[in-house]
Amino acid sequence: MKRRFGSKAAVAVSVGAVLLASGCSGDDDGAGSGGGELEPIKVSMPVIPPNFVHVMPWVAQEQGFYDDFGLEVELVSLDTGVTALRGAEAGSADIAAVPTPTLINAVAKGGSVKGFYTYSAKLDVQMVVTEDISGCEDLEGEVVGVDEVGGFAEVLTKKFYTSCGLTQDDLKYGNFPGAEGQAMAQGQSVSGVLHVDEAAGVMKEFPDAGLKALVNLWEEVPQWHYAGFAAPQKILDERRDEMIAFTAANIAANEFMSDSANKEAVLDTAEEITGLDREILSNTYDTFLEDNLLPDDNGYPKDMVEYTADQQVELGNITEDEKPAYDDLVDVSIYDEARALYDEQS
Q1: pLDDT tens, 218-245?
Q2: Domains 13-122+224-345 and 125-220 belong to one CATH topology
Q3: Alpha-carbon distance 30 to 50, whole Å?
Q4: What is the pTM of this model?
Q5: Residue 235: strand, helix, or coil
Q6: What's domain 13-122+224-345's superfamily in CATH?
């Protein structure tokens, strides 16, 4: 198979509803055998619309990298990472893009799912607050914006307010999945965890709301592992060839995105998928390169994953006895084979 870097492919995005389970799994012909024809796969992505951090698989789609590795991929946007994981566990998708705390908590509670590659190991989010909030202590008695309990924004919000001794009883949760910024602008909450491009977009849309970025969480908690692609163990076993091809295509997309010569092509895709202002996306792209937010290697460094698991214990989301080991959370062999395939075809 000759790789065709720079080719274009249609971007398939189904937004909102979870796909029917009956359409998700192909037969096992060729799965894991290294010689069979690859079956189409479906990937559930979090947040509607996606943020810049999520665009890697769309870049892979647009640049033809899935085609290069003989794989047909359908990308589905859902409201949160928790929803995406639930869909994969229920059989309505083959792969889910999942916040790492969500993955950890699911495995701790008996789920059989593992991460295998990422679009960003580091956090790309800021704690954004209204103008009257100057520090963690000011959140006492206020409504803080989250997505859902156990969700990405909720877990990091909890990490932030517990850093100054507050507990969940000291404040109120407002559930605004995907709309934390708008909730602050409309006076419904005083804080929200927003992706850097999302934060800039909300501040531009609501210039009189007095919103500000209080901290960059990738600097505040640099060891916190953000998110990645995960799949149920059954899928990893039965559709291994597809998982390897998907990963190889995203390695190609990561290499493409990491080269500043491709910035405008990346922005073309990001602008279409996110709907955000191109200048905001351009600044976000620069931040990703300058602060090394794109992944290295398999994107699941052991020290970061273990730190994030320890944080789930410290925050009271799981117990020490429930905490999964690294090998229970990550399948490194998928990346290793995908990297070899990518290198062979480069």
Answers
A1: 999 999 999 999 999 999 999 999 999 9
A2: yes
A3: 33
A4: 0.83
A5: helix
A6: Periplasmic binding protein-like II (3.40.190.10)
